[in-house]
Amino acid sequence: MSFSTLTPQTPQEPRGFWHKLRRIAQYASRHLLEISLLLYFAAQQPSLPRWEKLCIYSALLYFITPMDAIPDVLPLGLTDDLAVLSAVLAKLQHHITNDIRRRVTLALDKLLGAPTAPVSGGHHESRL
User: Which of 84, 92, 100, 110 gives 41 a disulfide partner, CB atoms 3.0 to 4.6 angstroms apart?
Assistant: First the structure.
C-alpha cells in the first residue's frame, strides 16, 4: 500500500489530512497518529450515519487547521488536537472494526517507515 492508495478519494475527505500526518509524523506521538487514522478510516464506512461522519470530519478539520486553541508549533501544541480527536473516538468507538484497525496498522507502517504493533482490539487504550 502506498500513500497514493491512502490519499483522499472523495470530495468530502479533508485534503490536508495526509499532508499534516506526514509533516508531524517525526515528532507527534504514535497515539495521535493512530487516533487520527482510526477516525479517518471510520468516516469512510458507507453505513456510518451522517451526523457521526460530521463529528469525525469536524474533528479532522480541527486537526489539520493551523488555527488551534494551542498552536501546533508550541511544545504542547498538539495537545488540543489529541483531546478533540480522542473525545470523538470515545463517542464513536463502536464503529471501529477489525478492518479499520488493519488499515490503520498498514498506514502507520507506511507513515513511520517501520512495522508497528497491531492496533488494539476491543476498546481503545491510551498509550500516552
Answer: 100
The string of pLDDT tens digits covering residues 26-42 is 888 899 999 999 999 99
Residues 128, 125: Cα–Cα separation, whole Å:
9
**CA pair distance 127, 96, nearest whole angstrom:** 18
Would you give the DSSP letter of residue 113?
Answer: T
Lowest-pLDDT choice from 5-9, 61-65, 99-103, 111-115? 5-9
